[in-house]
Amino acid sequence: MKLEIGNFYVKDIVFGDKTSYKDGILTVNQKEAVEALNPEGNLKNVELYIVRPGEKTRILPIKEIVEARVRPDGRALFPGQTGQMALSGDGKIYALKNMAVTAVGVYAGNGDGMLDMDGPAAELTYFSEMMHLCFKAENTDDSENVYNPYKKNTYYRLGAQLLAEYIGKAVLGQEPQEWEIFDNTTEGAADLPRVAMVLQISAAFVKEPGFVCRLYGQDVINLVPTMLNANELLDGALCADTLFFASFKLYTYDYQNMPLIKELYAEHGKGLNFVGVFLDVNPAVADLKVRASDRIAVMAQMMKLDGAVVVNTGNGHSEIDFFTTIIKLEEAGVKCVGQCMESPGHGGGMQSKVMLDARADAIVSTGADHVVLNLPAMDKVIGEIDSVNHDGYPGAWAYDPEYGPSLHEDGSLVVDSLIIAGHDGNAGWSHKVCKSY
Amino acid sequence: MMKKVIMYLNQFYGGIGGEDKADYEPSLLEGVVGPSKALDDMLTAGTVTYTILCGDGYMASHTEEALEKIGRLLEGLEFDILAAGPAFMSGRYGVSCAEVCNYVHKRFKIPAVTCMFEENPGREMYPQSMYIMAGSKSGAGMRKDMPKMAAIIDKILKGEEILWAEAEGYFPRGFRWQIQLPKEQTAAKRTVAMLKKKLDGEPFETELPIDAEEMVPIAPPRDASKSRVAFVSTGGLVPIDNPDHIPSAASTRFGRYDLSGKDVLKSGEWKSVHGGYDQTYANEQPMLAMPLDAIRKLEAEGKIGYFHPWFYTTTGNQTNRVNSVRMAKEIVEYLKADDIDTVIFGSA
Q: How many Cβ contacts (< 8 angstroms) between chains A and B?
């Protein structure tokens, strides 16, 4: 497969009469944009906001973050999800850089996050370094307009994906400022060590579909580990879940821009032969964990892998899948490097992972996922600040004997970094690492 | 203003004598002797005001009394830090240094620094109570070890940030904390670079060193009909109004709820607050998380000797080991008071 991503850099976003892109300025017609993201009226009170890095703005609860893109040949941006099924990963696609399309609600749940565009939290995530075209909305159906931690956020997620596709159309007919080429037919790779990325996705956990990742628009709740061309992943085959916590989850934006894939591509044909991506899952049942890691090891042998990068994106029991997969791959003769966040707790004194096994002898740490943050009030809130008063987020609380409530009267916050969207940088962005003290 | 350092030495380095003086009881010397003089000469932010002397044999055979005596000797003195050793590969001296550092750190709430060889048994006793500098195997290394102690003591006294273990030269104390690398050193770059090294057979260094785990032996089987049984769970089942605010993740507290007179747990009266599994089943049928009906049946049939009337519950999801161990110890106190000898441990 050969994927060519044509990049258009966005210097600023403004609202105006006609959705268009000229001289780096993206103009958005609000009425059309709202219609595009909410075609069937499943959302209500939809409002658009433009947020820039450095502004004293807090965004929460964030449901989904997507890069605005379009396919000049008319295929859906997220095949099977925003339009008809069509294989992704091959051909040309246009992307709008320096910005993301971001869905914001009112009621928070498990998978929801927060971004500060200024102050100490803004230095902790790459998502604070880009502009956001946000929409804030509520569900028309009131069943999720409550503080239950488990929300499907179906129409927020779809809305962000549809809005990303609508915004992408603004650049149609223009020439991109640069091209990124992802070609895995590169000559000269055949004799090099065969390497795959094993990527854990949010695939299990609840009995009902609707919460986990979507592969070509289909819920992956019963997915058996499978194999993708890395280009498919960069090109909209996979959409984010709404279960994993904001700090460590991968948003759809992360799959579209995954630094680990880009880094493996950079070595493809030079030091490595990057053969593709295995999707690993995190079932709640022990037998299914065994089955999943067995499948990965069998696929690795069938693909004659020499090495693998194994990526942990969920914590708790998902760490068992991470270590079990590494152990089985190593036993099958595949040399592994794992990449994971650590959970040493607020004092730093707890065991870093639920499971630790010395057979995983090569691990890259993306940092700690439980850091207490004292954050100043912001001038502006996009979304609903009261959402932190309802224990809906894993990283904020209405009551805590040690820290008091997360939200103080002056608007300042004490939160756990679990609430910060992209804090752990598990797609490979992280420049943090844990050290032994 | 120079800060005050007190140093602990054994009978040999304190100039009292050799093995024949190993039973020497703790004493306090105003000023310095041998290694404490060397340390005093090297320090820039502190001065060694007193030296504690004690025989290794006495510390080993009368640990509690020796520590208590040292505590009394230090009572009323002003000091900012305790130094001990270096102990090299001497097992008794290393253990003594660790005991004294731990005791003085806890009693006087001041930092403590020692130094020993990595295989010294004193190294792993109380890692979080002190900094143990990685030291030489034998006394011939005194000239190498003492500057290491002086350097970290000066840093602590000046209030400078103490970097991670490898950077400072101390043994890891059981803490993990994150630092920020230069922005271009992304996890993606580090991961692929490490993989290339591993594939090429070159040396590489993991960023998460993993030691063998501490295992707790499983209790032997016993006769349930003669047992006094309690039920403890990390499954997150709580009364419907969650009166103790048990959190959905990273719990620091547990709830204790009275089951007297109850034969079942009813839907609508109990719920799960656990954030790590689908709560629907437990909310519909709380006894999936706490099988009171089955326990009552076994009790009525005499298959359980006695059932403790309280149910202990917290959330295991993301709850750290330190808090887990502490909560377990607190729960055990309640259980001991009712002579409980068997616990059914439920999870999510």
A: 211
Partner-chain contact A150 B209, CB within 8 Å: no
In a domain, residue A433? The reply is: no
Asked if pLDDT for residue B214 goes beyond 70, the answer is: no
Identity of the residue in A207, A267, A437 whose CB atom sits nearest the CB atom of B280: A207
Full residue range of the structural domain in which residue A396 is found: 2-419
Please tell me the predicted confidence (pLDDT) of residue A333.
97
User: Do A436 and B164 lie within an 8 Å CB cutoff?
Assistant: yes
3-state secondary structure of B146: helix
- Assess whether pLDDT exceeds 80 at residue B260: yes
> What is the number of domains present in chain A?
1
The answer to whether B195 and A365 are in contact (CB under 8 A) is no
Average pLDDT rounded to a whole number, residues B47-70:
96
Which member of B172, B198, B204 has the closest CB to residue A436? B172
CB contact under 8 A, A433 and B195: no
User: In angstroms, rounded to a whole number, what is the distance separating the alpha carbons of residues B15 and B78?
Assistant: 25
Q: Half-sphere exposure of residue A36, counting CA atoms within 13 Å on the CB side? A: 21
Query: Which residue in A337, A400, A428 is closest to B198 by CB distance?
Result: A337
Tell whether A52 is covered by a domain.
yes
Please report, rounded to a whole number, the percentage of residues in chain A having pLDDT higher than 90.
89
pLDDT of the residue at B321: 67
Instruction: Classify residue A426: in a domain, yes or no.
Output: no
Q: Do B188 and A434 touch (CB under 8 A)?
A: no
Nearest partner of B130 among B164, B159, B105, B158, judged by Cα: B105
Which CA distances in Å does B285 have to A208, B143, B299?
Answer: 17, 69, 21
| Bridge partners, A178 (sequence order) | A7
d(CA A400, CA B250): 11
Q: What is the mean pLDDT of residues A118-130?
A: 96
Lowest mean pLDDT among A128-132, A227-231, B342-346: B342-346
Asked whether this complex has an ipTM greater than 0.90, the answer is yes
Q: Is B112 helix (H, G, I), strand (E, B) or coil?
A: strand
DSSP states of B20-56 as a string?
GGTTPPPEEEES--THHHHHHHH-SSEEEEEEEEE-H
Q: What is the mean pLDDT of chain A?
A: 95
pLDDT for position A391: 84
The Cβ of residue A385 has, within 10 Å, a number of other Cβ atoms equal to 18
Q: What value does the mean pLDDT of chain B take?
A: 93
Residues A431, B186: C-beta atoms closer than 8 Å = yes
Alpha carbons A157 and A32: distance in angstroms, whole number: 18
Q: How near does any CA of chain A get to the CA of B226, in Å?
A: 33
- Which of the four pLDDT bands, split at 50, 70 and 90, describes residue A118? very high
Q: Å from B162 to nearest chain A CA?
A: 9
What stretch of H or E contains A290?
A: helix A286-302
Q: A350-359, B162-171, B204-213 — which one is most confidently predicted on average? A: B162-171
Residue of B nearest to A428 (CA): B188
Q: Any idea what DSSP says for residue A362? A: -
- Asked whether the beta carbons of residue B207 and residue A433 sit closer than 8 angstroms, the reply is yes
Mind listing the pLDDT tens digit for each residue in A404-419? 999 999 999 999 999 9
Do residue A400 and residue B247 have CB atoms under 8 angstroms apart?
A: yes
**pLDDT of A150:** 87
CATH of domain B3-168: 3.40.50
In a domain, A425, yes or no: no
Task: Calculate mean pLDDT across residues B281-285.
Answer: 93
List the one residue out of B86, B104, B102, B89 whose CA is nearest residue B13. Answer: B86
Q: Give the chain A residue whose CA is nearest to the CA of B178.
A: A434
List strand residue ranges (DSSP E) for A264-344, in order.
273-280, 307-311, 335-342
Domain range annotation of chain B: 3-168, 224-346
Cα separation, B193 vs B195, in Å, equals 5
Cβ contact A309–B186 (<8 Å): no
